[in-house]
Design a protein that fits this description.
six-stranded mixed sheet; about 650 residues; 21 helices; alpha/beta; 10 strands; Rossmann fold; ABC transporter transmembrane region fold
């Protein structure tokens, strides 16, 4: 019978066709992760590293490494781990004291009733005192253990969250364009919380103490009676096998549920960011329907998960009960034939009860770790994302621009399946010159700016600052000389003062006010209730478009950059405000290299040089009068705006 096609079989077939594994290797597993693991084993045994071009490959590698990566976070906290292990051993030992005291009392009382005991009240008092002391000491050590465990887990959670957030901020621009902010932040939050849960709840509240308790119970039972010891151990491997089998089914469902949850989070964030657009178009009901639809998909996945959990709990209960019955029968027969006392019977049954807790908890760990590992893996996806734009070894700090910026035969595309955004572009911009970039939407103007900021590296050619390739320069020193006023100014939900000072946080209040006056945002700011301490809301929602634009210009002015980029900086201003802004920026752009991108030609007519872009290429360069004669694109755009 022909084997059905699965993602795993397709993955293996792909490896076979590329001669990375022998054709004889067959996929016979139903579980696609296990099939991929088999293929990976075949590769690793031959020291072959396949390309990471398969989702199944990635999933299989995650399954192997994620749990150990979480445990690897403990290596920097070895002293704390040693203390926790020591405390757990003491607690496990104290847990064994009470059952033995009870066994001792039962033997005394049974002997008393048949006239073979001479026990006195002092024995009972001493036994009660022993139970009290063991219990109090156990609580003291458990409190210390819980405190150190909690502190360690919180430290690691905060550390991994900060690592992931830092990585997110440092990732390349294309990653941010393709990934939803809400979805990514959700992955980081869930991943960090799940890391905390795995370490705190599972490793140190369950696995370590319960494992030691189980080992202590089995060791004592083997010492007292080897048959009862083996009867107590028998359910554990069956427990783990059943749990492992069912948990493997859960893993895939949980990841699918997480993927839907990421989509839900991303779409909810998108709606929240565009809530006024939703209301203007009366699309509230449609957005609610979309959210409900996604919630229902998650609900269906949760029902599947619940079904597996219930099967698991029922199976565990049956296995545990069978083991308990075996111990009761075995211990009872030993008493019946006079080989053990009634106290021994009570001890065996009590210790089995203590052992059952660890067994059920250990199997519960296996089932729940699968769920939380799915969250952790999403976070590791971010941590594992390569930083494509980074300082090379030996990168030097950029000195203040003195001579020129140069694009030398630069070609760039955003991805392999996209068209060239810039093609063989060569441009020189002398230091201190005002230049304008003109062209239709999509002609390459914004890409030019992105490359200058080194948000991306070109596939061909080089970008030079005073003769130094950007790839040889430290990014911080490059960006420290540049200020940008983008098409859409994004403000933080902070005060106006903090937003203006964002690029220069050490600026004095007087400098902030001076920049605000130059950008013409001082007058409206002082009319606000809290003036410069007014919080502008998420993305500056409490300000108008023109006000946000002026705050963005003030931010750029305060930075006092060597290179100023105005990317359609007046697109949200009325005619009067635009005129005033032009007067302010005329003074600001002096003595610095300024690059202006605008569809409104009134903002660029004072440029020393105008570059006309068309379909990613430089069509022409020159002054306005020169371009009207030699650039069809410039002439057409100019005529459209000044025809009246």
């Amino acid at each position: 019978m022909e084997q059905p096609k699965t993602p795993a079989s397709e993955f293996v077939r792909e490896l076979q066709l590329s001669n990375k594994i022998p054709p004889k290797l067959q996929v016979t597993f139903d579980d696609e992760v296990e099939a991929a693991l088999k293929a990976l084993d075949e590769l690793e045994s031959k020291e072959i590293l396949p390309e990471k071009n398969s989702a199944t490959y990635v999933m299989a590698k995650r399954k192997r490494s994620s749990f150990w990566r979480v445990l690897g976070l403990l290596k920097d906290h070895k002293k704390t781990v040693v203390v926790l292990v020591f405390l757990a051993i003491i607690i496990a030992a104290l847990n064994m004291v009470v059952p033995f005291i009870i066994k001792y009392l039962v033997d005394i009382f049974t002997g008393f009733f048949i006239g073979k005991s001479t026990a006195t009240m002092s024995v009972l008092i001493w036994a009660a005192s022993g139970i009290l002391i063991a219990t109090v000491l156990g609580q003291v050590f458990e409190s210390i253990y819980d405190y150190k465990d909690y502190k360690l887990a919180v430290i690691i959670r905060n550390h991994i969250h900060n690592m992931a957030f830092e990585k997110y901020l440092r990732l390349h621009a294309l990653f941010h364009h393709e990934s939803g902010s809400g979805s990514i932040i959700g992955k980081i939050d869930r991943g960090a919380s799940s890391t905390y849960t795995i370490i705190e709840d599972f490793m140190f509240q369950t696995v370590l103490p319960q494992s030691l308790t189980y080992i202590a119970v089995v060791s004592l039972l083997l010492w007292k009676n080897i048959t009862i010891g083996f009867l107590t151990m028998a359910p554990l491997p069956i427990y783990l096998l059943v749990t492992q089998f069912l948990a493997s089914k859960v893993y895939k469902i949980q990841r699918e549920s997480n993927d839907i949850a990421d989509t839900l989070s991303k779409e909810a964030y998108d709606v929240a960011s565009n809530v006024f657009t939703v209301k203007k178009y009366g699309q509230e009901n449609e957005e609610i329907k979309n959210q409900i639809k996604l919630q229902n998909r998650i609900f269906q996945k949760d029902l599947q998960l619940d079904r597996y959990w219930r099967w698991m709990r029922s199976s565990q209960a049956v296995i545990s009960m069978l083991g308990r019955l075996a111990v009761i029968i075995g211990a009872g027969l030993l008493v019946f034939y006079g080989k053990n006392t009634v106290g021994d019977f009570v001890l065996f049954v009590t210790l089995y009860g203590i052992a059952y807790g660890p067994m059920s908890q250990l199997s519960l760990v296996v089932q729940r770790v699968r769920k939380f590992l799915a969250n952790v893996e999403k976070m590791f996806d971010i941590l594992d994302e390569p930083i494509k734009i980074k300082d090379k070894d030996g990168a030097t700090a950029l000195m203040p621009l003195e001579r020129e910026l140069e694009f030398r035969e630069v070609s760039f595309k955003y991805s392999e399946d996209k068209n060239w955004a810039l093609k063989n572009l060569s441009i020189k911009i002398p230091a201190g010159q005002i230049v304008a970039l003109v062209g239709r939407s999509g002609s390459g103007k914004t890409t030019f700016v992105n490359l200058l900021l080194r948000s991306y590296d070109p596939q061909k050619g080089s970008i030079l600052v005073d003769g130094h390739d950007l790839r040889d320069i430290k990014q911080a020193s490059l960006l420290g000389q540049i200020a940008v006023v983008p098409q859409e100014v994004d403000l933080f939900s902070r005060t106006i003062k903090e937003n203006i000072a964002y690029g220069n946080p050490d600026a004095s209040e007087a400098d902030i006010v001076k920049a605000a006056k130059l950008a013409l945002c001082h007058d409206f700011t002082i009319k606000l209730p809290e003036k410069y301490d007014t919080v502008v809301g998420e993305r500056g929602i409490k300000l108008s478009g023109g006000e946000r634009q002026r705050v963005g210009i003030a931010r750029a002015i305060l930075r006092d950059p060597k290179i100023l980029i105005l990317d359609e900086a007046t697109s949200h201003l009325d005619t009067e405000s635009e005129r005033l802004i032009q007067e302010a920026t005329d003074a600001v752009i002096k003595n610095r290299t300024s690059i202006i991108i605008a569809h409104r030609f009134s903002t660029i007519l004072k440029a020393d040089m105008i570059f006309v872009f068309s379909k990613g290429e430089l069509e022409a360069a020159g002054t306005r009068d020169e371009l009207l004669h030699k650039s069809p694109t410039f002439k057409r755009l100019y005529s459209l705006q000044f025809s009246e």
